[in-house]
Design brief:
The complex is a heterodimer. By secondary structure, chain A is α+β, with helices and mostly antiparallel strands. Chain A has helices at 33-46, 118-126, 147-157, 164-168, 175-187, 189-192, 195-208, 219-223, 231-246; strands at residues 3-9, 18-24, 68-70, 73-74, 96-101, 109-111, 114-115. In chain A, helix 5 runs antiparallel to helix 7 (195-208). By secondary structure, chain B is mainly α. Helices cover 75% and strands 0% of the residues of chain B. Chain B has helices spanning 2-8, 11-36, 43-55, 57-88, 103-106, 108-127, 143-150, 154-182, 190-216. The chains are: A alpha+beta, B mainly alpha. Bound molecules: protoporphyrin IX containing FE and FE2/S2 (inorganic) cluster.
C-alpha cells in the first residue's frame, strides 16, 4: 500500500508548527500505524533528515503513551482502539492521511507529535491514596463486592490515561479521565473512605491545570480507546455534589 | 460563603448553575405556553388572562424579577464557560473530524444567542409594544387584537417559527444534558430521559408555532 502523509512538524514548544508532506510506499496492510511511522523514520534517517517524534511505549494498547490525531480523530478511525493497535488495513490504498498531536492548552507540544501530559499526573497525584493495610495479601473475598459493582469499577479502571478524551473535546475537558478514576475508586469499598476528598481535589486540580468544562457532547466516549461511558461523568457529578454540599470538606 | 463561591465557579459547579437555571427557564416556557393556548379559547379568555396577570403588580414584578435573574444567570454562566473553554482549547485540528457528537450539543452558544435576540425582540414586540404604531390605538388588554394584527405579516410569522425551532435545538440537547449534569443517569432510564427531553422540545416548538401559524392561516379570527 502507499500513502501520502501530512505530518505536523514542530521543533519545540515555542515554535509555530506546520504540516509537512511525506510519501510512503511498500506498506503492508498488516503493519500497525506506528510501524508505518517507524518505516518513514528509517527513510528519513537514511536521508539524514530529522525523524518524526511521537510518543509510544507498550504498543499493545495498555500504557496510554501513543497519542495521534489521525484525520481529525484521536487514535484514528477504528473505535475502541489505540493508535498503536490500529492497522493500515483500516485505510484505503493511496489515501491521504493527516497526523496531528493532541491539541489542548494543558497538553503543550514537546516536539512534532509528542505532547507533555504532566497535567494528567498532577490530577492523579491530587487524588491521593486509599487507606488499606499494607502487608501480606488479604484473604480473597474478605470484602464482599457484588459482581455488578465490581464490573462497573473494572470498566472505569480500563482507563489508560492517554488523554484522547481531552484531545477530542471541543472544550479540552478531561472530565472523562477524572470520571474514570473517581468512579473506579468510589464504587469500591476500599475507595469509599477518601471519596469526598478525592473528587474535590481532582476537580480542583483539573480546573487549575487549565482543562475546560463538560458540555456533555459525548465526543470523548466516541474516541476513548477503552470505550469508557460518559455515564461515569454523571457519577463524577453526583460524587462532586455530595462532597461539595454534604461533607465537611471545602473545594 | 467562600466555599460556595469556589464550588459554583468550578467547572462542575458552573454547569450545575447552568442546568438549574436552564430547567427553571424550561418551567417558565411550559407555563407560558399553557397561558398562550388560551388564544384558542377566544378573545375574552386570553385578554382576561392578561388582565388577571396585571391585576397584582407586586406578584407580577416578583415573578418577572425572578425570571429575569434566572435568565441573566444562565447567560452569564454560559458565556463564562464558553470563554474559558475557548482558552482551554486554543487550536483546532487542521482536518475537521467526522462527527463525534450531535450538532445541537456543539452549537449551544449559537442557538442560545439566537434565542436571546428573539427574546429581546419578543419583549419589544408584545410586552413593550414598540414595533407597531397600530398597537397604541388598542385597549391596554387587547392582546388578542395585537396577535391578530402582528401575525398577518409573514416575516414576523417566519421569525417566530425560526426562533422556536432554534430553541428546540437548544433544548433537545439542554434538557437531557441537565440530567447528566445533576448526575441523574442510569442505564435503565437513559433512553426515557433522552427521548422525553427531545419530545418536550418538539412539543414546545410545535406549541409555540401553532399560534402564529393558526392566525396567519385565518384559523383564528
Ligand atoms: C428560554 C431560554 C433558554 C432555555 C430554556 C435554556 C435552557 C438550557 C438548558 C436546559 C441547558 C442545559 C444545561 C446543562 O447542560 O447542564 C442549557 C445550556 C446552555 N445554554 Fe441555555 N437556555 C436558554 C437560553 C439561553 C441563552 C439566551 C443563551 C445565550 C447565551 C444560552 C446558552 C447556553 C449554553 C452555551 C449552554 C451550554 C453550556 C455548556 O454546557 O457548556 N441559553 N440551556
Ligand atoms: S503505545 Fe502503549 S497504548 Fe499505544
Amino acid at each position: 500500500m502507499r500513502f501520502t502523509l501530512f505530518i505536523w512538524r514542530q521543533s519545540n514548544k515555542e515554535e509555530k508548527g506546520r504540516f509537512k508532506k511525506y510519501q510512503v510506499d511498500d506498506i503492508s496492510s498488516s503493519m500497525s500505524f506506528l510501524e508505518m511511522l517507524d518505516l518513514l523514520n528509517e527513510q528519513l534517517i537514511n536521508k539524514n533528515e530529522d525523524p518524526v517524534t511521537f510518543d509510544h511505549d507498550c504498543r499493545e494498547g495498555i500504557c496510554g503513551s501513543c497519542s495521534l490525531v489521525i484525520n481529525g480523530v484521536a487514535h484514528g478511525p477504528e473505535r475502541g482502539t489505540t493508535a498503536c493497535q490500529l492497522h493500515m488495513r483500516s485505510f484505503k490504498d493511496g489515501e491521504t492521511i493527516h497526523i496531528e498531536p493532541w491539541r489542548a492548552k494543558s497538553f503543550p507540544i514537546n516536539k512534532d507529535l509528542s505532547t507533555n501530559r504532566r497535567s494528567f499526573d498532577s490530577i492523579i497525584q491530587s487524588g491521593g491514596f486509599i487507606s488499606i493495610n499494607s502487608g501480606s495479601v488479604p484473604d480473597a473475598n474478605s470484602t464482599p463486592i457484588p459482581k455488578t459493582i465490581a464490573d462497573k469499577a473494572m470498566d472505569a479502571a480500563a482507563c489508560i490515561g492517554c488523554g484522547a478524551c481531552a484531545a477530542a473535546c471541543k472544550n479540552s475537558s478531561a472530565m472523562l479521565f477524572v470520571a474514570a478514576k473517581v468512579s473506579q475508586l468510589s464504587s469500591l469499598p476500599q475507595g469509599k473512605a477518601e471519596a469526598d476528598k478525592r473528587v474535590l481535589k481532582m476537580i480542583s486540580t483539573h480546573d487549575k491545570e487549565g482543562f475546560g468544562s463538560c458540555t456533555n457532547t459525548g465526543a470523548c466516549e466516541a474516541v476513548c480507546p477503552k470505550e469508557i461511558s460518559i455515564g461515569h461523568i454523571a457519577k463524577l457529578n453526583r460524587e462532586f455534589i455530595r462532597a461539595a454540599f454534604k461533607s465537611d470538606l471545602n473545594l | 460563603m467562600l466555599w460556595l463561591k469556589r464550588i459554583l465557579f468550578s467547572s462542575v459547579g458552573c454547569k450545575l448553575v447552568v442546568a438549574l437555571t436552564g430547567l427553571g427557564l424550561v418551567g417558565f416556557l411550559v407555563a407560558h405556553l399553557a397561558g398562550n393556548f388560551l388564544v384558542f379559547v377566544g378573545p375574552e379568555a386570553i385578554n382576561d388572562y392578561a388582565r388577571q396577570l396585571r391585576k397584582f403588580p407586586l406578584i407580577l414584578w416578583i415573578l418577572r424579577l425572578g425570571l429575569i435573574s434566572i435568565f441573566f444567570i444562565h447567560i452569564a454562566f454560559t458565556i463564562r464557560l464558553t470563554r474559558l473553554n475557548k482558552i482551554s482549547n486554543p487550536q483546532k485540528y487542521a482536518v475537521p473530524s467526522r462527527e463525534l457528537s450531535s450538532f445541537a450539543s456543539r452549537s449551544m452558544i449559537l442557538s442560545g444567542l439566537t434565542v436571546l435576540s428573539f427574546v429581546l425582540y419578543h419583549l419589544a414586540h408584545l410586552t413593550f409594544r414598540l414595533t407597531n404604531p397600530l398597537f397604541e390605538q388598542l385597549g391596554e388588554y387587547d392582546v388578542y387584537a395585537m396577535l391578530l394584527i402582528s401575525f398577518q405579516n409573514p416575516i414576523i410569522v417566519c421569525f417566530y417559527i425560526l426562533s422556536v425551532c432554534l430553541l428546540m435545538v437548544h433544548l433537545s440537547h439542554g434538557i437531557s444534558s441537565s440530567f447528566q449534569t445533576f448526575g441523574i443517569k442510569h442505564l435503565k432510564y437513559n433512553k426515557i430521559v433522552e427521548n422525553s427531553s427531545i419530545a418536550l422540545s418538539i412539543f414546545l416548538a410545535l406549541g409555540f408555532s401553532s399560534i402564529p401559524i393558526s392566525i396567519f392561516l385565518g384559523l383564528i379570527q
